[in-house]
Structure formats: C-alpha cells, structure tokens
Amino acid sequence: MTAQYSSWRKSHHSDPNDHCVELALSSRGTIGVRDSKAGDTGPILEFSCSDWAAFVHALRQD
C-alpha cells in the first residue's frame, strides 16, 4: 500500500525555483522526503519517525 502524503513543506530558505527537498507526514505516520523538481511524479523516500529523528540528530552533530 502506498502512503498518502499531504501538506508537503520546504524550508523558507530554499530556492524559489524548486531546487530543494520537501517533507510531509503520511497517513501511516511516516516521514516522506522528495525532490521538489520531481513533484508528485518523482520517488519518495520514506522514514519512520524514529529513523528521521536519528538522521536529523546526526546532521546537527556535525
């Protein structure tokens, strides 16, 4: 089953020409990540909330 995503968000610091990463919460409670250039037709990486939190934590450590 494919997760349903709504309210894709991107940083307000991102390029207005859609050169950024977008995030959304799915109907199953997972985090979706996609390339804004690809939009609805591109692939979506899906992370559990705990995996996403660990990823963000690791980024902040550097």
Describe this structure in words.
- With 62 residues, this protein is an alpha+beta fold.
- It has one helix spanning 49-61; strands at residues 5-9, 21-26, 31-35, 45-47.
- Strands 1-2-3-4 form a four-stranded antiparallel β-sheet.
- The radius of gyration is 12 Å and the shape is flat.
- 8% of the residues are buried.
- The model has no long low-confidence stretch (mean pLDDT 88).
Number of domains: 1
Q: What percentage of the residues does DSSP assign to strands (E)?
A: 25-35%
N- to C-terminal distance: 36 Å
Strand pairing plus helix content: what structural class? alpha+beta
Shape summary = flat
What is the mean pLDDT? 88
What's the total count of β strands?
A: 4
Q: Tell me about the biggest sheet?
A: 4 strands, antiparallel
Rg for CA atoms: 12 Å
Order of helices and strands: EEEEH
- Continuous helix count: 1
Numbering strands along the chain, what is their spatial order in the largest sheet?
1-2-3-4
Proportion of helical residues: 10-25%
- Note poorly predicted spans: none
Organism: Actinomadura craniellae
Pfam families: DUF397
Domain DUF397: 7-60
InterPro entries: DUF397
Features of the shown structure:
alpha+beta; four-stranded antiparallel beta sheet; 1 helix
Briefly say what this structure is.
This protein has 1 helix and 4 strands; from the N terminus they run ββββα. It has 62 residues and is an alpha+beta fold.
Secondary-structure map:
Layout: E1 5-9, E2 21-26, E3 31-35, E4 45-47, H1 49-61
Antiparallel strand pairs: 1-2, 2-3, 3-4
